[in-house]
Amino acid sequence: MTKAPSLRASNRSRVLAELLAGAELERTQLAESTGLSRATVFRVVDDLIASQLLLERSAPLKTGPGRPATTVRLNPSAMLIAGIDLGGTNCRIAVADALGNAIIRGRFKTPRELGAADFADWLAARVTELVEEHGQGIPLGSVALGVPGAVSGDRKRILGAHNLPQMLGSEFVQAVEDAFDVPVHIDNDSNLALYGELVCGSLDGSGSAVLLALGTGLGTAAAREGRVLAGPDGALGEFGRLRIPGRAERLRDLVSGAGLAAYAKARGADIATAEDLFADPERHAGILGEVHEALLHLVSLVTLAYEPATIVIAGGFADAFDDDILDRLHTEVIDMINVDTRIRRSELGGAAGLLGAMAAALSQLHTSVGVLTEHATLVQVERERIIQALASSPTTA
Q1: I want to staple 116 with a disulfide (CB 3.0 to 4.6 A). Which of 18, 48, 172, 232 is the partner?
Q2: E strands, the chain, where?
Q3: Where are the domains positioned within the chain?
Q4: Cβ-count burial of 154 within 10 angstroms (0-12 exposed, 13-18 middle, 19+ buried)?
Q5: Both ends of the chain: CA-CA distance in Å?
């Protein structure tokens, strides 16, 4: 049985939840917004200032009796977070302050040849380098890693990793946790991309939503009422494993960058990447017709499974499907199963997975400093600020 948090812990959590998104308030304003007594707020704020989680400064001058007021806000330099979007081809890392403002990004070629332990050490080394070179001495407080594979519900095992098989099992997960000295949140990259859409994108969290991640591989994630769904064995949403009816190929063989390129080359197509097929649609009309049918089958499956209001198409391969293709899919799905689901490309583009990893690391940091589950939803991040900070942050390789 879970022990109920103490009143002191609950009060601290409530005050933090009010400030973690970047608000700057006077103590009296905090008392009004939290519903806590002034004495309680003053005590909590003093403790948080002493622990360097909050900064205090004089408020604008005002007339009238009483001592000059001061405002408090989160200390963005209290700790850093790192979000990692690990793909089968490239690995992207963003290091951000405690408000989620990215200070540096890194893009690296994924070392597919490394074993589990060495791979984990490589990830930790890349993050450590970015923190040491650009973090101005601020300690790292939280890491979130999105992996291209199915992750167990307890996040202790990777149960499917078509493009990076060295991650399978528990060895890689344990090695990652050992390589970092801070809490590490590991999840399927599609789940984190959908989380990024919920936190930083235009999905409002109501009803159901599905994200199809079309990159080197194929991933699917689903959310209900703002919560990303997960199963105990990580198989929820792994539609790419399914065979196309009447064929030997699986969905991921035609609706992913690596799979489609391999399939097309086996059919005699003279291409370097899957995108080359779409650059010459007349020449490759036969294969592209197969791709469309496979994508229609996939979209129909997820629509029947979740009845989502919106299906978001994301990933590096998503741009191959223009608005005309998506509009045609929308019409065909309605005709086939009579469900009107909006189908659109991600507004966050290729940043969805990285933003989701950053958001997960930030949420984990909030928990580590004392925000309780009951108050976590009160922390409303400034989406535009976080998106712009990531886009404008320098990139190193």
Answers
A1: 172
A2: 25-26, 54-58, 70-74, 80-86, 90-96, 102-109, 140-147, 150-151, 158-160, 184-188, 208-214, 218-224, 227-228, 310-314, 342-345, 395-396
A3: 7-74, 80-195+350-396, 204-346
A4: exposed
A5: 47
Domain covering 7-74 in this structure, CATH number:
1.10.10.10
- One fold for 80-195+350-396 and 204-346: yes
Q: What is the pLDDT of residues 96-147, one digit of tens each?
A: 999 999 999 999 999 999 999 999 999 999 999 999 999 999 999 999 999 9
pLDDT digits (tens, 9 = 90+) for 161-187: 878 999 999 999 999 999 999 999 999
Question: What b-and-e string marks burial along 256-271, b requiring 16 or more CB atoms within 10 Å of the CB?
Answer: bbbbbbebbeeeebeb
Q: Which residues pair with 150 in a beta bridge?
A: 160
H-state helical runs in 218-342: 251-254, 257-266, 275-279, 285-306, 323-337
Q: Does domain 80-195+350-396 correspond to CATH entry 3.30.200.40?
A: no
CB 256 within 8 A of CB 217: yes
> What's the CA gap between 209 and 226, in Å, rounded?
9
CA–CA separation, 39 vs 43, rounded Å?
Answer: 6
- Burial environment of residue 155 by CB neighbours within 10 A (0 to 12, 13 to 18, 19 or more): middle
Cβ proximity of 149 and 167 under 8 Å: yes
CA–CA separation, 371 vs 379, rounded Å?
9
pLDDT tens per residue across span 321-358: 889 999 999 999 999 999 999 999 998 988 999 999 99
Q: What angle do CA 97, 391, 383 make, to 5 degrees?
A: 65
